[in-house]
Write a structure and sequence with these properties.
InterPro entries: A-D-PHexomutase_a/b/a-I, A-D-PHexomutase_a/b/a-I/II/III, A-D-PHexomutase_a/b/a-II, A-D-PHexomutase_a/b/a-III, A-D-PHexomutase_C_sf, A-D-PHexomutase_CS, Alpha-D-phosphohexomutase_SF. This protein is α/β, with parallel strands linked by helices and 614 residues long. Helix content is 38%, strand content 19%. It is built from 19 helices and 25 strands.
């Protein structure tokens, strides 16, 4: 077979076709030469891996390694994806007046992010859709914010968040400014497959000179910080922030967050952050960290802790590279040790804080129409707070795509969403942005620190312990085992479902009957033992495994598979009642339960599972 002047025969008709398509379609010299080199070396196995599978456009978008091939992030795949998304948007909004609402595009500091955004812009401009393309790197929240404020049809953020430096991604927001959920993801994928041939105009960056392309950076930045300030009570700014000498060490983790944190702190009267200079500015190589992910805890905060110790700061704030997540650490003055808070602990603090701020601004208002949201694998602490304080609590599936869309639904009925969070250090401190936002979360958390120091001389740890006293101690443990064989994963979960017999045969207890199971929810099969009809209220999906066990002693343990990694994860939490003071016993009991459930249900030795290296 011949294509682009090269003769080849892989022995597979399908692979020959895919190779031919790549050689004829790709106009990026680097990735074209990658495939040419593999063809000339007859690397048919490598070519099969790269070309026979497509990078799937799943819920929220794309993410993958940057290299040549249909299963990776590169110019050709980005153009194909933009063409499919564009056609789907026009299918949903065929009126010419709707088309003029345009689309928002942003990018982070990774290799190729700006180029991927610009190529995408060319696709939409070709079809007569105006484009708002940020001229500089932005925090991910600025894309959904602009979709909402500019009333756009959709938004795209080119980012791979905290993934390794080799990766990039394509995150899509729908007209309601929340991340896309089904059926949009499936429909976009179908449109991509119908529009694979790249148009000549899709490669033409001269289109970026069009008067249909505008830069929203200045206008959206000003509006964002105006709305951020409106979400912090004015009395807190004047009485606590402006009067405080509290300083915070800040790491942008080689990402985009610093200028937004700097302006946010200035806007609400906080002292300027003490930035980790080595990590302050975007650097796609992430040279000082093994993983650019503040979720990794102290290992990702080494430079931050060093700087804090040198400067006498006792609180550290850190964003991930696209600034939609927030990590926080606090120094214990008695021991000098640093405590890195978990996402669940920060969720409890910020959940309480959201109520405190609302009451400051609306002292006479009832909380009956107010909501706190959390994903199903996150701590139930917000549920406990809501129950006692008279708010509503809603649980969603894992991921902010669900919390964002749930917020849209609630607000459409006149409800107020005060706060939403997920244990993976993602926080939505107001519905100004219907996604996790590490910039606003940092500003709120820093204000909370100033407030606590001034009003009660409390640290964040002190306040968290006080919340446990009032609402009940909540102790959570999250970890995982690696499993590289999908067949083994399937067998493990099917065994769990049939341990007591084929029909709803889930286990009734673990630990030789010591820990009795009160209820079970299986979001793979759609079963929920607490419902009269046995059907789960949350959406179920057969494409992933997820079973939650609620125990008579207050513990909740969820077993689930990862959508992006070869892992079986567990999320365990002991939810004690208010007034139960034996916190050590709660921790000991939960750890014993985790050991039992791993051994009895996952059978790691028999199934050759590899535990997480702590």
């Amino acid at each position: 077979m011949d294509a682009n002047g090269i003769h080849f025969d892989s022995g597979s008709t399908e692979l020959n076709q895919r190779i031919s398509e790549w050689l004829n379609w790709d106009k990026n010299e680097n990735t074209l030469n990658e495939i040419k080199s593999l063809v000339k070396s007859s690397e048919w196995k490598a070519l099969s891996a790269r070309l026979l599978k497509r990078l799937a456009f799943g819920t929220a978008g794309l993410r993958g390694v940057m290299q040549a091939g249909f299963n990776a992030m590169n110019d050709l795949v980005v153009i194909q994806s933009a063409q499919g998304l564009c056609k789907y948007i026009l299918e949903c909004y065929p009126a010419a007046s709707d088309r003029q609402r345009g689309i928002v595009l942003g990018f982070d500091g990774r290799h190729n992010s700006k180029r991927f955004a610009e190529l995408s812009a060319c696709v939409f401009l070709t079809d007569g859709i105006p484009v708002w393309l940020y001229s500089k790197t932005v925090a991910t929240p600025f894309v959904p914010f602009a979709v909402k404020e500019l009333n756009c049809l959709a938004g795209i953020m080119v980012t791979a968040s905290h993934n390794p430096k080799e990766d990039n991604g394509y995150k899509v927001y729908w007209t309601n400014s929340a991340q896309i959920i089904s059926p949009h993801d499936k429909n976009i994928q179908a449109n991509i497959l119908q529009n694979l041939v790249p148009l000549e105009s899709s490669w033409n960056l001269d289109l970026l000179k069009s008067d249909q392309l505008k830069d929203p950076y200045d206008a959206m930045s000003s509006l964002y910080f105006e709305k951020l300030a409106a979400n912090v009570p004015k009395t807190f700014v004047s009485d606590y922030n402006r009067k405080s000498s509290q300083r915070f060490v800040y790491s942008a983790m080689h990402g985009v967050g610093f200028p937004f944190i700097e302006r946010g702190f200035e806007t609400i009267g906080l002292q300027p952050v003490v930035a980790v200079k080595e990590q302050r500015d975007p650097d796609p190589e992430f040279p000082t960290v093994k993983f650019p992910n503040p979720e990794e805890g102290k290992s990702s905060l080494v430079l931050s802790i060093k700087l804090a110790n040198e400067t006498g700061c006792d609180v550290i704030l850190a964003n991930d590279p696209d600034a939609d997540r927030l990590a926080c650490a606090e120094k214990d003055p008695s021991t000098g040790e640093w405590r890195v808070f978990s996402g669940n602990e920060l969720g409890a603090l910020l959940g309480w804080w959201s109520i405190r701020c609302y009451r400051e601004e609306h002292p006479e208002s009832s909380l009956a129409d107010c909501y706190l949201l959390a994903s199903t694998v996150s701590s139930k602490m917000c549920r406990s707070i809501a129950k006692i304080e008279g708010l509503n609590f809603e649980e969603t599936l894992t991921g902010f795509k669900w919390m964002g869309n749930k917020s849209v639904d609630l607000m459409a009925t006149g409800k107020k969403v005060l706060f939403a969070f997920e244990e993976a250090i993602g926080f939505m401190c107001s519905p100004t942005v219907l996604d996790k936002d590490g910039v606003s979360a940092a500003c709120q958390l820093a204000t909370m620190v100033c407030y606590l120091r001034s009003t009660s001389n409390q640290s964040l740890s002190d306040k968290l312990n006080e919340l446990y006293d009032i609402y009940g101690y909540h102790y959570a443990v999250t970890s995982y085992h690696f499993c590289y064989d999908p067949v083994v994963i399937e067998r493990i979960f099917e065994r769990i479902r049939t341990m007591e017999g084929a029909d709803s045969g889930y286990p009734k207890a673990i630990g030789d009957g010591q820990y009795k199971i009160e209820s079970i929810r299986d979001l793979t099969t759609g079963y929920d033992s607490t419902q009269a009809d046995g059907k789960a209220l949350l959406p179920s999906s057969k494409s992933s495994q997820m079973i939650t066990f609620s125990f008579e002693n207050g513990a909740v343990i969820t077993l689930r598979t990862s959508g992006t990694e070869p892992k079986i994860k567990y999320y365990a939490e002991m939810c004690a009642k208010p007034g139960q003071r034996d916190w050590n016993a709660s921790r000991t009991t939960l750890r014993d339960m985790i050991d039992r459930i791993v051994e009895e249900l996952l059978e790691p030795t028999k199934n050759n599972l590899t535990p997480r290296s702590e």
